[in-house]
Design goal:
It is a single chain. This protein has three helices and eight strands. The chain has 146 residues and is an alpha+beta fold. Helix 1 packs antiparallel against helix 3. The protein is globular. It starts with a strand and ends with a helix.
Length: 146
């Protein structure tokens, strides 16, 4: 199972935007996506492109919080990599001073290789799903955007 979806609109930390949920297997986490730069459809289009990139290139990232790049410090993402047929997914902040939004949106930003332990040897939170679930998500996103 893999899904990213918006569950409603609202406010958080003085910003307007969308409440959402990511589901990976049995794991589920809520998130907030501001709408100051991206609207719901722009997020969903990026998610579709990211899913298709996972399926064709084995590596991608789903953006869930995008600010105006002229004022942003970071963008929230869920990068993923396919290793031996399994899709591994983590949560990561993409630094705006190291990666410009246009490169991120066109997938010209090659984030570091996925690591499963940090520099101190501590396990990095990682979830996994399969390629079939990613294909189903891609199909569902095409339907939602139609």
């Amino acid at each position: 199972m893999f899904d990213l979806s918006f569950t409603g609109e609202g406010h958080m930390f003085g910003e307007t935007g969308y409440y959402g949920t990511i589901k990976i297997g049995t794991f589920s986490e809520d998130f907030f996506s501001n709408n100051t730069f991206f609207n719901a459809r722009q997020y969903q289009k990026q998610w579709l492109a990211a899913a298709e990139r996972v399926l064709t290139n084995g590596k991608s990232y789903f953006l869930v919080n995008v600010y105006d790049p002229d004022m942003a410090n970071f963008f929230m993402s869920w990068p993923c990599s396919v290793i031996d047929g399994t899709v591994y997914i983590q949560n990561e902040i993409i630094s705006a001073d190291r990666h410009c939004l246009n490169d991120i949106l066109s997938f010209h930003t090659d984030l570091k290789e996925m690591e499963f332990t940090d520099e101190d040897g501590q396990k990095i939170s990682t979830w996994q799903t399969d390629l079939h679930a990613m294909q189903q998500f891609s199909t569902e996103m095409r339907r939602r955007l139609a």
